[in-house]
Design goal:
This protein is mainly alpha-helical. It is built from 27 helices and 2 strands. The protein folds into 2 domains: 321 residues, ABC transporter involved in vitamin B12 uptake, BtuC, CATH 1.10.3470; 265 residues, Orthogonal Bundle (ABC transporter involved in vitamin B12 uptake, BtuC). Strands 1-2 form a two-stranded antiparallel sheet. α1 packs parallel to α13 and α17 crosses α24. It is globular. The protein starts with a helix and ends with a helix.
């Protein structure tokens, strides 16, 4: 009996020690590195003098006072705000994966500021904070609306938030493409840069962080009661709806204030509560205490390491946190208990249609669009119809990019249809499940290891990356009992990792940056005659091979048990279908880039038009995919002539809202 208090206290003291080490070790390392860097910039005996002087002429003193020193304070302050925000969101939503980036708050705040900067700068006269708050509130409300039909399940909330983020990101990129004179500054800010020009951001953000801490501790008991069901909470005298709204308001305000001050800093709000929980912070009071401290030390150290990275230009801190945070999200996703909710194929009323007649009409429409796209254009003199005598002059310019767009659109549509039928997941597509992201990682690996652009090697790497990603997703899906929703979330994580690696590569100052930026946006700018030949031949070969798998594709959506009962060799079917989906997806990604939602939209449009059986749906999807990307390429070439908008960017901007409509239709 005497040892009982000691044995019960020992784990608590061990947890406190672990939490203290978690906070102090990164903070101590960041402090040492910061001291060394500041002392190198300006000897320590001159620090106080530069801070007190009213007339500074030494450039090093100016940089120390107005840039280096404010950055030293803004990093832990932002980290603390995000750590607190993540803790509140995870408690309110009962969701260990919730944070401002994954629930769409940051994306809305960022898009609102971009719109105000470009088209209503008068709204920023009193500061960015209120514009960011309005945008973040709207997108958070949309995420709640999308997830409401599934009882706010954790994975559904995250998927809705990430799709909102992708859509807002595409919209921001489109607006910046239309306003190129501001695009560089907005791009750096959106990536989450902690570069400072004075201490204004610190003094604006500090009161919000302190107020958020005080308000969250004032709501400690009501927040604890949210762990019970609403009926039990009400019986104890609490009002759960009011508590949720108040807590969400605190979280949205804090996250949007951070966006207004420094841009989007991803995943710190996810990482800080997660690591303190792993180190022993069991109670909400402990998490509210330790998560802001952990967030402050982690972001401080990350920002210090970013400044030390050997790149010609500095990698934005938000990009670095995304590179570290996306794998953490994958790890948490694997450890999260399986959810009862899974995605299901969308139900469209079956209509009897004459498939041959309708396919013939669609092919005729495709041919007509190809003629219009090639002949109708825009020049300095306005819109015009190409004269027959000028066709040969423009054939080398328009022919390769139009045929490349046609072939890649068909390949992505076919890959998306195969994946939806193979997984039984109505939201599966190469772009959403991370297959395109895996192909991107393969291409970036080749570019990091070589000095040129070897087409055959990059083709192989893209296909290998796409195939490896698809195998990994299906492997974890079987081993960890992933629902289809979780596979979607894992795919978005892979896409985040690939985009972060690309951002690091861009910061390296490689001479291929222009090519990479255009390619990442889904561009046909650099399409060559060989690209067009590869795209068309691959699409035709795929259309010729796929009919051999017709029986599998008609049976697999019924489920694994039914497929086995009907004699389908599931491992063999999955391997062959994965190859047929991953290889063209990798080739299409290499040709036009990873940014497109063609693989998601085309299968659903084909089903909506009445093509229910596998083979008719595949052929119809191919035609629709070609139409979408050819049209997007033409619009990107003509809308803001003489500048151009990447075709993939336009397709993604349309695909995000379409994905949301699918989620609304699939609500339970």
């Amino acid at each position: 009996m005497i040892r009982l208090p000691h044995s019960s206290a020992h784990p608590a003291s061990s947890r406190n020690r672990n939490l203290a080490l978690l906070v102090l070790l990164p903070a101590l390392l960041a402090a040492i590195l910061s001291y060394v860097a500041l002392n190198h910039l300006l000897p320590s005996d001159q620090w106080w003098q530069s801070f007190r002087a009213t007339d500074l002429t030494d450039p090093n003193q100016l940089i120390f006072r107005y840039s280096a020193l404010p950055r030293l304070f803004i990093a832990p302050l932002v980290g603390a705000a995000l750590g607190l925000t993540g803790t509140i969101l995870q408690q309110v939503l009962r969701n260990p994966l919730a944070e401002p980036t994954t629930v769409g708050t940051n994306a809305g705040a960022s898009l609102a500021i971009v719109i105000a900067t470009l088209y209503a700068p008068w709204m920023l006269e009193t500061g960015r904070e209120w514009v960011a708050l309005a945008g973040g509130t709207v997108t958070t409300a949309i995420v709640f609306m999308l997830a409401k039909g599934r009882s706010f399940s954790p994975v559904t909330m995250i998927i809705a938030g990430l799709i909102i983020s992708l859509t807002c990101s595409s919209a921001s990129s489109l607006l910046m493409a239309l306003n190129r004179e501001y695009s560089e500054e907005l791009f750096i800010w959106q990536s989450g840069s902690l570069v400072q020009n004075g201490g204004d951001a610190i003094f604006k953000l500090l009161p919000w962080v302190v107020g958020g801490l005080l308000a969250s501790f004032a709501l400690l008991r009501p927040l604890l009661l949210l762990e019970l069901d609403d009926e039990s909470t009400q019986s104890l005298g609490s009002r759960p709806t009011l508590v949720r709204l108040s807590s969400m308001f605190i979280a949205v305000v804090l996250s949007t204030m951070v966006v207004a001050s420094v841009g989007v800093i991803s995943f710190i709000a996810l990482a800080a509560p997660a690591v303190v929980r792993m180190c022993g912070a069991r109670t909400l009071r402990q998490r509210l205490t330790w998560a802001p401290l952990a967030g402050a030390s982690l972001l401080w150290l990350t920002d210090r390491l970013v400044q030390m990275a050997p790149f010609p230009s500095e990698v934005p801190t938000g990009t670095a946190t995304a590179l570290f945070g996306a794998p953490l999200l994958l790890l948490l996703l694997i450890k999260l208990r399986p959810a009862a909710i899974t995605a299901r194929p969308s139900h469209v009323s079956v209509r009897t249609v004459n498939t041959r007649l309708r396919l013939g009409m669609m092919l005729g429409l495709l041919i007509l669009v190809l003629v219009v796209v090639f002949m109708f254009g825009r020049s300095a003199g306005g819109w015009y119809w190409l004269q027959p005598s000028d066709v040969s002059n423009l054939l080398d310019l328009r022919g390769p990019r139009t045929l490349t767009a046609l072939g890649t659109g068909m390949m992505l549509a076919l890959a998306g249809t195969l994946m939806q039928r193979m997984t039984g997941n109505a939201m599966a597509a190469p772009e959403v499940l991370g297959v395109s992201g895996g192909a991107t990682v393969g291409v970036l690996a080749v570019m990091l290891l070589t000095s040129g652009v070897n087409r055959s090697l990059t083709f192989t790497a893209a296909a290998a990356g796409a195939l490896a990603t698809l195998f990994m997703l299906l492997f974890f899906g079987r081993q960890k009992r992933f629902s289809a929703d979780r596979q979607l979330l894992a795919g978005v994580c892979i896409a985040t990792i690939s985009s972060s690696i690309a951002a690091v590569f861009i910061a390296g100052g490689d001479q291929r940056i222009d090519f990479l930026l255009a390619w990442m946006s889904g561009s046909t700018y650099h399409a060559s005659p060989m690209d067009a030949v590869v795209a068309i031949i691959t699409a035709v070969l795929l259309l010729a091979i796929i009919p051999l798998t017709a029986r599998w594709l008609d049976i697999l959506p019924l489920g694994g048990s039914s497929a086995r009962a009907l004699g389908v060799n599931l491992p063999l079917a999955h391997v062959i279908l994965m190859l047929l989906a991953a290889i063209p997806a990798g080739i299409a990604t290499l040709l036009i880039g990873p940014l497109s939602f063609v693989g998601l939209m085309a299968p659903h449009l084909a089903r909506f038009l009445g093509f229910q059986r596998a083979i008719p749906q595949l052929f119809a999807s191919a035609v629709i995919g070609g139409l979408i990307l050819v049209s997007a390429d033409w619009m990107g070439r003509t809308l803001i002539f003489p500048w151009q908008i990447p075709a993939g960017l336009l397709a993604a901007f349309a695909g995000g809202p379409y994905f949301m409509v699918l989620m609304l239709k699939d609500r339970r």
